[in-house]
Amino acid sequence: MPKTLVTLHVNGATYEVAVKPQDTLALALRDGCGLTGTKIGCDMGTCGCCTVLVEGRPVLSCLTLALEAEDWQIETIEGLSGAERLHPVQEAFATCGGSQCGYCTPGFVMTSVALLRDNAAPSRDEIKAAIAGNLCRCTGYAKIVDAVEKAGSDMRSADAGATPPTTGEKDDAGIQGRRQTAAAGR
Ligand code: FES
Ligand code: FES
Predict the structure, then answer these.
(1) CB 8 within 8 A of CB 32
(2) How many domains does the chain have?
(3) Residue 68 has pLDDT above 80, yes or no
(4) Spatial separation of the C-alpha atoms in residues 82 and 102, rounded to whole Å
(5) Is 177 in contact with 97 (CB distance < 8 Å)?
């Protein structure tokens, strides 16, 4: 089947990608743009691994045709971090142990970034609702919820220009968060 050139705007850059009519955005990002941070898990809309942001909203790129995405503003995991440091959500996932296999993590991170842009201080229930479409097959969700909660707190502190907590305070907060999570059963 002949290919068509589609213009994709991803992370502030423009890519011209040759795609077949049936090619998904996930495929075009990975094979056409070389942005392999977006993972393809189920390839049928059930796991959330392929989540990217389109105009700031989480979208399953395995259910989106590349041709549909022409001229949309797309963000992928590669666009989050700067040259020097990770995005606060990425930092929090690393600190809290929210990233285990790395396969589902980009989707969780992108979904969480969108949540925190809309709601700077989500409750644990709001976090669980936001990530309900992202599946983790290997460990569970407690540390992931901890990470999103911590990222929100870190981002609010940064916005307020507040002095970051000391390492000891951070450790205490993490232990407290894990206790709360354990008590909540997730
Ligand atoms: S790969 Fe898209 S939802 Fe699973
Ligand atoms: S951490 Fe990726 S599936 Fe659980």
Answers:
(1) yes
(2) 2
(3) yes
(4) 19
(5) no
